[in-house]
Specification:
The chain has helices spanning about 5-15, 60-70, 80-85, 135, 155-170, 210-220, 230-245, 255-260, 265, and strands at about 25, 35, 40-45, 50, 85-90, 95-105, 105-120, 145-150, 175-180, 200-205, 225, 245-255, 275-280, 285-295. By secondary structure, it is an alpha/beta fold. β13 (about 275-280) and β14 (about 285-295) form a beta hairpin. The longest helix has 14 residues, at about 155-170.
């Protein structure tokens, strides 16, 4: 990931004693900021953690040279992905983009005057689903239980879903991932960069509606995986899967099952979910607070 940073920033990063790098934030005329497994900190011009007043300030040249590297000097070739707010690098690492929106014909045409870039390290946590895979697949060869992973933002639900997908596929089930934001498989040019299992097909960048239609029509899944459900239309999509006999593994934002039961999209889903996994912010990211058998 460091190879896509402007040379001046790259050299500073190489001097840092990093462990478990998570994010690098470049904001125009503001301090260079890094987050690792221990937390966030600013970086000095000598490549050391420091206070905001001593930090290296990101220049316009730093941003422009970084953009040249991540777009391979061709902004237009990546424009469709950029309109989604990010670019994906080899290895699945993601660069979030902030700048000025330009609209045309009622839709977003492009983003210009880029003011910040957020590099996020892609990392699969193999074994993250070890504690629950036996409940999602109670008996090998029997149908998977449709499973909803629930947590507040930043608590590891996509990490858990990714490893659960890998383990279920490796048990012999045909799995299709509808990866709307390229976060589950972290695909680069359509190729998954993270391990999602030997029997998994990835529909990268598809909307949920189109992805489900494609999967049912052409890929014959036993299990369909998707991330961040919660819109009203998602209930109808889930109901269509239920009618087709396809099991679902998905995530959504929330704090409890009682809270979710009041949401309309869940009422419209024909009660497809059989297992709910609640992740805890209180107990720390990735910690399973409870597993509920719904039916």
């Amino acid at each position: 990931m460091l190879n896509y940073l402007a040379p001046a920033v790259r050299e500073l990063m190489k001097r840092l004693p990093l462990r478990d790098l998570e994010e690098i934030r470049l904001r125009l005329h503001r301090p260079l900021m890094v987050r690792d497994g221990k937390g966030s900190f600013y970086v000095s011009a000598q490549g050391r953690p420091c206070s905001p007043g001593q930090a290296y300030l990101v220049s316009r040249d730093d941003l422009e040279r970084t953009l040249q590297l991540i777009t391979e000097n061709s902004w237009y070739a990546w424009e469709q992905e950029i309109l989604g707010g990010y670019l994906t690098l080899p290895g699945g690492h993601r660069v979030g983009i902030a700048g000025q929106a330009v609209y045309s014909g009622g839709g977003l045409k492009t983003i210009r005057n880029i003011s910040s870039l957020n590099f996020r390290q892609a990392r699969a946590v193999l074994g993250a689903a070890d504690a629950v895979v036996g409940q999602v697949v109670p008996r090998l060869g029997s149908p998977v239980l449709s499973t909803l992973i629930v947590s507040p933002p930043g608590c590891g639900k996509t990490t858990l879903l990714r490893d659960l997908t890998r383990q279920v596929a490796n048990l012999g089930y045909q799995v299709v991932v509808v990866d709307e934001r390229s976060e589950i498989a972290s695909s680069y040019q359509g190729v998954p960069q993270l391990d999602v299992g030997v029997q998994t097909d990835v529909l990268d960048g598809y909307t949920k509606e189109l992805g489900v239609q494609h999967a049912l029509r052409a890929l014959a899944p036993q299990v369909l995986v998707t991330d961040e459900i919660g819109h009203q239309s998602d209930g109808w999509i889930l109901a269509e899967l239920a009618r087709s006999g396809v099991k679902v593994m998905a995530t959504c934002h929330g704090n409890s099952w009682e809270q979710l039961k009041r949401r309309n999209w869940l009422k419209d889903s024909l009660g497809i979910f059989e297992l709910v996994i609640i992740l805890s912010r209180r107990l720390g990211p990735g910690t399973i607070e409870s597993v509920l058998r719904i039916s």
